Amino acid sequence: MIETAGENYSQTWLTEVRRIAKLVDKTGESLQLLAGKRATLEEKSISRYLHELAAEFGQIVWRIHSRFAQDRVVPSEVILLELKEITRQVETAVDDLLRAGRYNLNYLEQYFEYDFNNKLNVEYRFLDEVRRISGALDSADHPPGQL
Questions:
Q1: 46: number of CA atoms within 13 Å, CB side?
Q2: In the chain, what are the domain boundaries?
Q3: Which element (helix H / strand E) includes 15?
Q4: Which CATH architecture does the domain made up of 7-139 adopt?
Q5: What are the pLDDT digits (tens) for 91-108?
Q6: Which value, in Å, is the radius of gyration of the alpha carbons in the chain?
């Protein structure tokens, strides 16, 4: 694969892929934290949501690496910008969850989980956005060529 002007763009995509991998790891840490406390309906809902979100992010990482491996053009900058933004938003939410759990599991269970679960499913709707981006990456079938 020979690349000149597109090199920085490829590096930007790879940087984002690494950021997503770190987010998936951090999400796993939050899932471990939730698994270590008494189960509630909210905890089960949050856990299911975060597992699905991590799986979708994994699909995005797979799609990008597949494009590089097949020497295909990476998707547009618009998709990259959308991906960066949703990754940032999800990371902020996961950080909030980790902060609450590290502070006190009782606080997490009694005061944090209910609102966090509602935000995930009603306000944030991260999963819908990540699935949309993942689908855009899947359907943006660029012809073989240089990255």
A1: 27
A2: 7-139
A3: helix 7-35
A4: Up-down Bundle (1.20)
A5: 999 999 999 999 999 999
A6: 17
